[in-house]
Amino acid sequence: GLVYRHYGKQLIQKYAAYGVENGLLKAQLSEPEVNMLFDRIYRNFVEQVDGVDNGVADWSPVPADKPENITRNYRTTTNLSARVGTLNPRWNDADQSATSINAAFGKAVTLATSEFFDVVDFYTLSWLPARTVVQKAFDEAKNHHSSGAIAVMSAGGCPWREHLMDIEEEAGAKGRTLYVLFGDEKGWRVQAVPKDVNSFENRKSLPWKGLRDEDLSKASGIDGGVFVHVSGFIGGNKTFEGAMAMAVKAVEMTE
Questions:
Q1: Whether pTM exceeds 0.85
Q2: Where are the beta strands (DSSP E) in the chain?
Q3: Which residues make Cβ contacts (< 8 Å) with residue 6, sequence separation at least 6?
């Protein structure tokens, strides 16, 4: 954490320069963009490593004097700290020499370095360029429905969640977007926007849960139906028009 605090921005700028030189970024990053990346990489990678290292729980009861308000549903045992831990010599290995321990440390350094730069690569060369795509989709949302509840991404696979929620908050329109449309090789997808970035709860789930093909088309009254997930978080249609009709109908249906 301390190393990142002192050298993180410098590292991001150098990585961005590599992106510009190789045609992966259009221009060198502005200071606000560097600050944004520095914050996101810390929150989504460095902070959790620091938390585990310093014995800070990844959740706290709210309010603090009501610990019964939180229930752990499952344990997460595959974080970076845990994976590094498995590289230590086994307690019952015959060889507990400094050479063996140093070899394990070398593997840990390689693993941590690889994962850190994978995160830097994603946020610098994939996540940040997506901001423009998401901003455009948000700005044009009222062209698709007067509520502004439907955003159409021009690029499938675009990492939109964090950007969309930031943009909504900046525009004073928090919670406005209910569905995001994007294309893929099989047609068009309609995805429900979650209540927050890491939530499995949707702002408004799609109706027609669990239906597919003709059953979906008949129930929705929209041709080209492909599927709706049983949880209602995502659905598909063969055409953009069909996916848009699904989203519009879902927006206007009362729950």
A1: no
A2: 150-152, 179-184, 187-192, 225-228, 234-237
A3: none
